[in-house]
Amino acid sequence: MSDTILNKKFECFDLEIENKIAKLTLNRPEKLNSMIRSFWDELPEIITAIDQEALARVIVISSTGKHFSAGMDLSVFSQNNVTSSDNKNKKEEGRFRGSFYKNLLKLQETFSCIDNSRIPVLMALQGGCIGGAVDFASASDMRYCTEDAFFCIQEINIGMTADVGTFPRLPYLIPMGLVKELAYTGRRLLADEAKESGLVNKVFKNQEEMMNYVMDIATQIAEKTPLAVWGSKDMINFTRGRTVREGLDRIALWQSGMYHPKSDMKEAFDAQMENRDAKFEDLYPLKKDFGL
Q1: Cβ distance 278 to 223 under 8 Å?
Q2: CA distances from 241 to 109, 171, 238 (A)
Q3: CA 125/CA 225 separation, integer angstroms
């Protein structure tokens, strides 16, 4: 799979992997990097392949042009028969609604692949992060943006409710009252307020400065043991919507199965004592046939 994913030409993304860091770049600036039909197929294919094959230790997602992304392209609505006038006259309304429900679940899985991946995902945003792009950003592990960035839950402005990931995730990133204000009004959340509310980790003057910083953070993560990084991501994501007791039980279960003081911990201590960089083993690829 690794040869396939690295050599494949994508319509919406450019993929580069170097020094155990995967750089995934939205590449349709002339169309404001809107999320056309192929976007919803390509993103999970790429993220899943990197995770399944353990091709990188960190994923950095960035964009090109004036705006990060204008969100879901209107063509996706028509392709999924969401806005087709013919649907109003369908006799088999239940069948149509059932198909719409299943199609929507598939779209949601596009961003859930980020949650499900063992690999941390960092996102660097410039300009507009609009509509479906907010769902996209909410799924990433960390977000950074430029001074000209803004976030907009655009769906309310076109007569619908955001439905592919914003509301299950955003309340864990910023205060609930602010989530509701953005959702009900469709106003723009500017970079300084995004930083103040906790949506982004840091704001930069320009994209070059931002990318230098984000790549440095990615490098620091890539230097750590990927097993412990995976465990940290799993623990943090698991605790959303659960009790402290459930979280404690999960980490105890993880540690009892994954904790190996004679491997990663020994290497970490030895490296510190010898004043050198630690060399940790990569995660293992995930076997589709469940073989050992």
Answers
A1: yes
A2: 19, 11, 8
A3: 27
Structure-token pair, residue 84: 């087709």
CA dist 46 and 148 (Å) reads: 28
Per-residue model confidence as pLDDT tens digits over 237-274? 999 999 999 999 999 999 888 877 678 889 999 999 99
Strand segments (E) across the chain:
13-18, 21-26, 58-62, 121-125, 128-130, 142-146, 150-152, 188-190, 202-204
pLDDT tens, position by position, 96-149: 778 888 888 888 899 999 999 999 999 999 999 999 999 999 999 999 999 999
Determine whether 275 is exposed, middle or buried from the number of CB atoms within 10 Å of its CB (0-12, 13-18, 19+). exposed
Count Cβ atoms below 10 Å from residue 169 Cβ, excluding itself: 21
Domains, the chain, ordered by start: 2-222 (3.90.226.10), 224-292 (1.10.12.10)
pTM equals 0.90
Which H/E stretch holds residue 179? helix 176-185
